[in-house]
Design brief:
The structure holds two protein chains of two kinds.
Chain A (H helix, E strand, L loop, with lengths): L1 E2 L4 E2 L17 E2 L2 E4 L2 E8 L6 E6 L4 E4 L14 H12 L1
Antiparallel strand pairs in A: 1-2, 1-5, 3-4, 4-5, 5-6, 6-7
Chain B lengths: L5 E6 L4 E8 L3 E9 L5 H6 L6 E5 L3 E2 L18 E3 L2 E2 L12 H8 L2 E4 L3 H11 L2 E6 L5 H9 L9 H5 L5 E2 H5 L10 E7 L4 H9 L2 E7 L4 H5 L32 E4 L21
Parallel strand pairs in B: 3-4, 4-6, 5-7, 6-8, 11-12, 11-13
Antiparallel strand pairs in B: 1-2, 1-9, 2-8, 3-9, 10-12
Classes of the chains: A alpha+beta, B alpha/beta.
Chain lengths: 91, 280
Amino acid sequence: MKDLRSGRVEITSHNHGFAVEPDGWPRDGNVARTPFGRVELTHWNLNDGTLEGLRCLDVPALAVQYHPEAAPGPHDARYLFDEFRALMAAA
Amino acid sequence: MTPGPAALLVLEDGSAFRGTAFGAAGEAFGEAVFNTGMSGYQEVLTDPSYAGQIVAMTAPHQGNYGTNAEDPESARVHVSGFVVREVARRASNWRANGSLAEELERAGVVGLESVDTRRLTLSLRDRGAMRCGVSTVDLDAGSLLERVRSQPPMEGADLAKGVSSDEPYAARDLVGPASDELGAVYRVAAYDFGLKRNILRRLAAAGIEATVVPATTPAAEVRSGGYETPPRRRTGSTPPTSCSGRRRCSGSAWGTSCSGSRSGGGRPSYRSGTGARTSP
C-alpha cells in the first residue's frame, strides 16, 4: 500500500473483497469531484491497483479500507489515528 | 497426540483438500480467505471482519502460545472455519489459559489441520476468494462441492448487522480511559460495523474517547447527543450532552467515528453533525 502524500509504502493488514471504484469521478490528479465534494485519493494498493484510502477536502472525513489498527499485523499505518485526531482539532 | 478424524475442504472451483479435524466437529460454508501471520491467530479468530469466512493460515505452525484473556479482538469467535497446516501439540506461554483447539471447540467452529495451506494460499491468491465448505461429516468431494456451489455469494450479505454490538457502550469500559497526554480529549461515536478492540485502544491512545453505537443507530440520534455525559473532565471542544434515557449508555457522542465492515469504510471522521464512514 502506498500513501501518495508521503510516498511511503506501508505493509498493512487487509481483508476486503470489494473496492471503491474511482473511475466514475472526474479527476484532477489525485483529487476527484464527487457528490460529497472534492476527495483526495490518498492510498493505493500496489499489488492490485485498488483505491485503499481517501480524504474529503470539503468536509472533515477520511477513510481507509484496510486495518490500520493491526492486531494482528504491521503497525505501519498507526499514524492514521493521529491524522483523525488532527482532523478534529482543525475542524 | 493422535490425529483427529478425517475432514475435507472443497473450493467452488472444485479443488479439494483433505485433512484432519480439530476443534468442533461438523460442517461450515463460507468464503475462503488466507492470513499470512505467523502469530496472531486468536486476534484472527475474533476479528469480526472474518464473519462468514473460512480462514486458512498460511504459516505452517499455529497455536504454539495457546489462547489467553487479553488477545481477543471482540467478544467471540467470528470465523466460520479455521484451516491450518499443523496445530501445536502443546500450548506454551505464561499468558495462556487455553489452547487453540479448545477455543474452536468452545465456539463450535470446525478446524482442519494437515492441509497444505501454502498451496491453498497460492490458489486463492491467483483465483481470488472463493466459496468454500469444510466438513467432518461429508467426506465426498462431489457432494460437498455441490453444496458449496449452492451457497449464496458474499455480495449483498448484510454482515455488519450480524456482528454489531446490540447496545451502546463506553470504550473506556473495555480498554480504559483515553490518554490525556496530547491535551484535549475528544469524544466521538464509533459505529460498530465489526469494530475491533484495537481500534478502540488506538483511539484511546490518540486521546479520543469513544462511545460505541450499534450499526443501525440513526445518525440523527448520534447528532442529537442522546448519550449520557460521563462524570469526568470536560474536553475542549465538546459540549456536554444529555441522555435520552432510552438506553443504557455512558460516554457521549459528538462526532462520529465508524469502523466499517468488509467493503470499505474507514475510520469515520465527522464531528458533531457530520457522519463519517470508513471500513477496515
